[in-house]
What does this fold into?
Amino acid sequence: MIVCSCNVLSDHDVRNAVTAASDLPRNPKQIYGCLGCSAECGRCARTIKTIIDEALGACAKECCSGCPHTRQAVSDEPAQETAPAFALAAC
It folds into this structure.
């Protein structure tokens, strides 16, 4: 299913980008970067975030200190703070 009509990205593209990336993208901006594009209208951002969360499973909700992705989760905190601004700007 196409989730981003501006960049013609499917849900499979997003899932593949999540699982193939070595540093696990955790927000739509990182997914766009992995796929070599950028957000246009932003309507797909929520859907992409949902797909990321589903693909990462429990790790997306809560990384424990022993999780190999903890370093990435800590470095993404500023990006998560700016996510609502991105969503509002896209409206």
Observations:
- Helices lie at 11-20, 28-34, 45-56, 58-61, 70-75, 77-90.
- Residues 27 and 49 are 6 Å apart (CA to CA).
